[in-house]
Design goal:
The chain has 106 residues and is mostly beta strands. It has one domain. It has one helix and nine strands, in the order E-E-E-E-E-E-E-E-E-H. Strands 2, 3, 5, 8 and 9 form a five-stranded antiparallel β-sheet that branches. A two-stranded antiparallel sheet has the order 1-6. A two-stranded antiparallel sheet has the order 4-7.
Length: 106
């Protein structure tokens, strides 16, 4: 992920969540939600300063996304209202590039 803060006010990250949820929620129907657990993160930032951007690589257990579901990634601001979320569908993952070797430096 990459978070770009275009404001002058720092964005303090409270949490990042990964959930597989139903694409369509019908009224009076229980929403099925599966929370994915984070295994590891590289360059996990807790603050994105004003007019800056930060990248983080998150590692999750292997999972699949059924056709009627989608992955929702949410980033919540600490004591603020600038919560962000975006959707990843199975087609996005299928089109992703494979990384054969990953060099991690500190």
């Amino acid at each position: 992920t990459e978070i770009k803060n275009t404001s002058n006010i720092a964005f303090d990250i409270d949490y990042v969540s990964f959930k597989i949820v139903d694409k369509k929620v019908i009224k009076r129907t229980a929403m099925q939600e599966q929370v994915l657990e984070l295994l590891r993160a590289q360059n996990y930032v807790t603050v994105v300063s004003g007019k800056q951007s930060e990248r983080t690589v998150f590692a999750l257990e292997k999972f699949t996304i059924p056709d009627d579901k989608q992955l929702v990634i949410e980033v919540a601001e600490k004591e603020g209202g600038r919560h962000q979320s975006f959707v990843v569908e199975n087609d996005d993952i299928v089109r992703a590039n494979v990384i054969d070797e990953l060099s991690i430096t500190n």
